[in-house]
Amino acid sequence: MAQVLKPNCSLAGKSLIPIILRVKNADAEAVLELSRLKKDEPLESLTKVELIAQFEKLTGESVKDVLIVLCGKDDNIENMRLLVHESILLANSVGARGQRLSTSNPSTDTPAAKGSDGKAAQGDPSTTNQQLQAMRQDLDELKKNSKVLQTGQNLKKYEEPSGSKERQDILDAPPTSAPAFPFPGYGYQNPGFGFPYPNFYPGPNYNSGGFRPPRMQGGRGRRVSNGNIRDHEPLAKKEKFEPEIPDWELKSGFDPLSVKLRKQSDILLVNYKGEITQPSDCLPSAEEVVNGSDYDFEDLSFLDPNFFKAGNLMYCSEQWEKIGCPGEILDWIKQGGSLLRFKSSQPAYFQNSASCKGFEKFLCDTLLERIANGSLTVIGRVGECDPPLLVLPITIEPSKPRMCHDERYLNLWIKDFPFSLDTLKEVPRLIEKDSFMASLDDKSGYDHILLNPNSRQYFGIQFAGWYMVFNSLPFGFKASAFIYHTTGLVPISYCRSLGVPSLLYIDDRLVCEFKNTSLKKKSGHAELVKSLYILCQVLVRLGYFLNLEKCCFIPTRCLKFLGMFCDSAKLAFILPEQKKESFRILRESILDGNDVGIKTLQRFAGKCISFFLAVPSARLFSREINRAISLASKNSKKINIYKELKEELEYWRFLDNWKGTNCLLEIRNPFTMNFSN
C-alpha cells in the first residue's frame, strides 16, 4: 500500500543526504508503487511543474541543485517523481515538527477563560495572567526535571564502564582541534614523478586507518583500558592523573636515572673494520678523488656506531649547505621536524600494547640506549610530574624484534606523504656483466633527524612508571619515512652528479662502479672502491653514522640487497634460501588445513608476486589464489581450500629445489615482460 505524507511533516532545514544516496543509486522504473502527497492524489497525476513546487515546499531546496547537481540525474518527470517519493518516505520517518511541551499535572493546566459564545475571551487581563502563570510553572518543572536527569547521567557515566553505544559516541565525535605541519616541496625526487607536498589536513584524516580519536572534554585526559575509553575527573576535582601501570612493567627493573647521557665529544672515529683511528687532515675529499687525486680507502674514518648520537646531522649543517641542500630540508636538519600546537590541545593517554609482555628486557635495553644516545628524554615519574600532551602506546614487532611507537591517534591529523623509493626494479639499469657492487646501511636511521622542541610533547611514552618523550623521528610517525628518505636523497643526488651510480631505499644504499668519461677507466674492482670512498666520505662529513656490521665494503659480483641476491655474473636475481624456507613453511601450513584466513592467503600471494624478479612468470601461478581472495573479501569467513586452489598451492612446491634464475636483461626492458599461459 502506498504511503501518504503525514500531516505537518516537513524536511525544511533537515539533511537530504539519505534522499540523495537513494535517488543516485535507484532506478525510477524499478519502483513498484510511489508514495502520495494526499490519499486521493497520486504522484502520477501531477505535472512536472507541480512536482517541482511540491518538492521545494516539502524540503525548501531546489530540484536542480538536488536532482541534477548532487544526484547526477536528468530532470525528467520520472526522476522527479522518484525524488518526491523518497522525500515523502524520509519526511514520514522524521515525523512532524515539534510542539510546545506541557505537563499533565491538573494543577498547572489552567483552562482559558471563555466567553458566552464558547470562545476564549479576547483581551481579558485575568485570563492572560493565568496563562502566563501556567507557562512559568511548566518551565520551572521542566528545568527541575532536566537538572535531575543530567546529574543522573553524569553519575552513571563515571560509575559504570563505558558501554558499546557510549564508546561509539565517543569515537564518532568530531575533533575540536587540528595541528599544522609545513612540509613544502622537494626537488630531488624523480623528474617524472610529481606529487603535492602537503601541509597537514585542517582536520583528522579518517581514511588513514580504522582508528578514531576520542574527544577530550574538560578532563585531564582519557584512559584506555580493556578496549574501553573512560573519562577522568576534571582538573578542578582531581589534580594528578595516575594511569594504571601493569605489574609486568613495574617488575621489569627499568631505571632511567642510572643512564649516563652521551656527549658529542664521546664520539670516536674508526675505520671500516671498526678499529679506532685518529683524525687526519691530509685525506683527500670526495671532490678531489673525482678529479684524480690518490686515495686509500683504509685511511677513511667513520663515526663509531657504538657511540651513536641522535640528531648528529644538525652539527654538520654547514656541510649540508656546501652541497646545495634545499632550504626546507636544511630547516629539518637545523631546527627539527616541526609540529605546531593544536588549536585547543587536550591530553590523551593510551596504555602500552599487550604484545610488549614477554619483551621486558628488550624494551628496557632499547629505552636505556635511546636515553643514552639522546633520542629519548625522561620527564619524570608518573604522578610526580605533568605528563606529555600525548602519551601513545609502545608496541613490538616480534620478528626483528623492533620497538615501535603506535601513533595512529596522531597520524589521523597528518596528510599522506607520497614519495618514490628506489627498488630492485632499478638495479638492472645500473649493473653490467661482471660488474662489482657494494652496499651501505645507516645506523638508527630515523634518529639522525631531531624533532623540534615544541613538537616533542606530541610524542610521549610511558614505561614502568616513567614519562618520556621522543627527541628524534619515531618509528610509527607517518611522516618519518618521508622526511628521512627525502633528506637522504640530497647526498645521494650529489654523489650521482659526481659519477657514483647508487640507489636509496630509506636507509639502505646500493653502490655501483664509478662512471666518469673524463678519466681513464681502471678495473671494475678499483672503480667500485672509488665509488665507495666518494659516497662514504660525503656521508661522514654530513654527520651520518653507518652500521659497519651490516655494510658490505668488499666489492662483490653477488650482493644481497633488499632481501634478494643480485648476481652480475649471471645477470640474474636469486632467491635466498631463507626466503625459500619461510615460504615453504607458510605454504605447508595452509595445505595442512581445510580452510585458511584471508590475511594468511594475502600474505602468501604477496610472497608469490615478490618472486617475479627471480622466478619467471611467477604471476601466472597465483591466479586462483587471487580469485579466492577476491571472493572472500566480500565476507569475513575463512576461505575453503577447494580443488583448483589446492592444486595451485601444491604447484609452488617446485620452488623447494628450483635452481633457475630470471635474466636481468629481460627485466631491464619492460617491453619484453610478457605473462601468458
From TrEMBL:
Annotated ranges, domain Reverse transcriptase: 428-564
Biased composition (Polar residues): 100-110
Positions of the UniProt region annotated as Disordered: 96-131, 146-170
Pfam families given in the database record: RVT_1
Compositionally biased intervals (Basic and acidic residues): 156-170
PANTHER family for this protein: REVERSE TRANSCRIPTASE DOMAIN-CONTAINING PROTEIN, RIBONUCLEASE H
The protein's name: Reverse transcriptase domain-containing protein
Native source organism of the sequence: Mytilus galloprovincialis
